[in-house]
């Protein structure tokens, strides 16, 4: 498999290939994957859309808990079939922390996510999104612990930094770094982003390309 060519990979058209409600529906393993996790309404879909410059790729919604599957996105021209593997895939994971969802639904999402994290050898990194207005919450800490236990590399990405005072962003980054400093699977760098303003997107693209090549 040839290496993707730097940032132009994100400038090519991307497509949604499938939603995965259970492990048996996962695409064939082969190309590297990076996944995006975060509390409901943290801005995962908006960030994915901004990364690839496609406003309608990942569906956004004001309704928490709408994403109930692992949603796979790849560069256009690659179906994800074994004989046509893409250079990489982006995976939008179900949002967590939405208390109003029925318990059985939450349990089903949780099992899917946990099984995926434990069993996907091509998963190179999980980007855990944290709303900069709220910081790290208890259920974010629980996800960190899960990723640490599964030995899955993860990196914290602050979202919606345009919604807080600009002067407060560096302080928030430093506070976040301190909170994850002793976590064994946490990547020791925090990326501050704004999908609306385009801030931090190049840094995140660089981080993704580095992760899939390791």
UniProtKB/TrEMBL annotation:
Q: Keyword Transmembrane helix: yes or no?
A: no
One matching Pfam family: MMR_HSR1
Residues in domain EngB-type G? Answer: 30-214
Q: Which UniProt keywords apply?
A: Cell cycle, Cell division, GTP-binding, Magnesium, Metal-binding, Nucleotide-binding, Septation
Reported cofactor(s): Mg(2+)
Q: Does the keyword Metal-binding apply?
A: yes
Tell me the InterPro entries matching this sequence. G_ENGB_dom (IPR030393), GTP-bd (IPR006073), GTP-bd_ribosome_bio_YsxC (IPR019987), P-loop_NTPase (IPR027417)
Q: What does this protein do?
A: Necessary for normal cell division and for the maintenance of normal septation.
- Family designation: Belongs to the TRAFAC class TrmE-Era-EngA-EngB-Septin-like GTPase superfamily. EngB GTPase family.
UniProt cross-references to PANTHER family, sorted A to Z: ENGB-TYPE G DOMAIN-CONTAINING PROTEIN, MSS1/TRME-RELATED GTP-BINDING PROTEIN
Q: What is this protein called?
A: Probable GTP-binding protein EngB
